[in-house]
């Protein structure tokens, strides 16, 4: 299976690197600066699961290549539009696109470009970032991809993708309910990125602060209320379940959004918080979600 990883950043670099380590046929679609970095130093992973320094194949957008069997999409949401436009030559009638972005609205955007057939549902659980040397740093025990057909069937291509990941130094799981799982991850990350970025803290001190737990639960309730209008099969007690899972996480855990803010980088608040507000009925009362979104927009506009 020929695999194209689009974006050799914290997510694409990590999972793509784990596939290269396994011996899979992997190419990274990158931009000029990242290409030079990878050509000069290789793809370096510093991880709690073991370090790696790998020689990798790269492709610059516009360079000729046959369509790939699988495209793993791992760019930030604010780069998606221009990235999709550059992918056209590499998408053929047998290509599957597996997006690993946080959020939901990118599914529509990908469909608009390439139609419904190519698109799989996907998400990942990993805590990783690129350091100043362009090395992938990966911190906590979890390093998992979840994937599946949006219609839920177990097709030949998802079987093949399962085989691709099998034996690599990472976890991968096929889901027959990938859309629901994407919504659950979206709710989880919406709340986690929102509050860790708003309070500029990892999760432990937030939950331990005087009204931290209460605020977290209220925020989750707002988010779950919107999500259930879109995906009614989500359980009514999801906010409580997510909070109880959050309490089991390592207290030092941060969202990738907070890590990006600490580096002064752009953030995905339009894609995560803004897109959710757009899905909400006008009459819904969303004080926390709107506070988070407007605070993060102040950061974003300040950068601009
Ligand atoms: N990091 C994490 O812990 C997690 C992140 N996620 C999600 O995964 C997605 C990716 O995040 P992450 O990996 O952290 O982001 P990064 O910024 O680390 O990586 C994105 C990469 O995409 C590259 N890129 C941007 N545009 C293009 C393009 N047109 N062609 C080729 N490459 C391009 C950037 O390269 P360049 O150097 O050229 O700018 C960059 O290296 C996000 O939606 C995020 O929310 C999900 C779970 C965990
Ligand atoms: C919370 C985490 C690390 C889980 O994968 C994540 O998705 C992110 O920070 O973007």
From TrEMBL:
Catalytic reaction equation(s): (R)-pantoate + NADP(+) = 2-dehydropantoate + NADPH + H(+)
Cross-referenced Gene3D superfamilies: N-(1-d-carboxylethyl)-l-norvaline Dehydrogenase, domain 2, NAD(P)-binding Rossmann-like Domain
A GO term for molecular function: 2-dehydropantoate 2-reductase activity
Ketopantoate reductase N-terminal domain segment(s): 3-150
GO biological process per UniProt: pantothenate biosynthetic process
InterPro entries reported in the protein's UniProt record: 6-PGluconate_DH-like_C_sf, 6PGD_dom2, ApbA, KPA_reductase, KPR-Related, KPR_N, NAD(P)-bd_dom_sf
Keyword Chaperone: no
Source superkingdom: Bacteria
Alphabetic keyword roster: NADP, Oxidoreductase, Pantothenate biosynthesis
EC number: 1.1.1.169
Domain Ketopantoate reductase C-terminal: 178-299
Pfam families: ApbA, ApbA_C
Keyword Iron-sulfur assigned: no
Family the UniProt entry places it in: Belongs to the ketopantoate reductase family.
The protein, known as: 2-dehydropantoate 2-reductase
């Amino acid at each position: 299976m020929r695999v194209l990883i689009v974006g050799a950043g914290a997510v694409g670099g990590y999972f793509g690197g784990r596939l290269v380590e396994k011996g899979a046929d992997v190419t990274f679609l990158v931009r000029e600066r990242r290409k030079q970095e990878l050509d000069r130093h290789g793809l370096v992973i510093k991880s709690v699961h073991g370090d790696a320094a790998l020689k990798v194949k790269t492709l610059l957008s516009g360079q000729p290549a046959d369509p790939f069997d699988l495209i793993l999409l791992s760019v930030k949401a604010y780069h998606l539009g221009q990235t999709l436009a550059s992918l056209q030559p590499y998408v053929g009638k047998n290509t599957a696109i597996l997006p690993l972005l946080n959020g939901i609205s990118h599914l529509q955007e990908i469909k608009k470009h390439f139609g419904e057939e190519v698109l799989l549902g996907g998400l990942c659980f990993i805590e990783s970032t690129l350091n100043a040397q362009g090395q992938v740093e990966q911190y906590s025990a979890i390093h998992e991809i979840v994937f599946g057909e949006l219609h839920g069937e177990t097709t030949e291509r998802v079987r093949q993708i399962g085989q691709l990941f099998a034996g690599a130094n990472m976890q991968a799981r096929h889901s027959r309910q990938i859309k629901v799982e994407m919504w659950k991850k979206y709710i989880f990350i919406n709340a986690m990125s929102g509050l860790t970025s708003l309070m500029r803290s990892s999760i432990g001190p937030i939950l331990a602060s005087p009204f931290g737990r209460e605020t977290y639960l209220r925020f989750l309730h707002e988010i779950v209320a919107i999500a259930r209008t879109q995906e009614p099969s989500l359980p009514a007690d999801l906010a409580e379940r997510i909070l109880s899972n959050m309490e089991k996480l390592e207290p030092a855990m941060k969202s990738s959004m907070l890590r990006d803010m600490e580096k002064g980088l752009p953030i995905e608040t339009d894609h995560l918080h803004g897109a959710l507000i757009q899905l909400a009925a006008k009459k819904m009362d969303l004080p926390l979600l709107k506070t988070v979104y407007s605070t993060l927009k102040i950061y974003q506009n300040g950068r601009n």
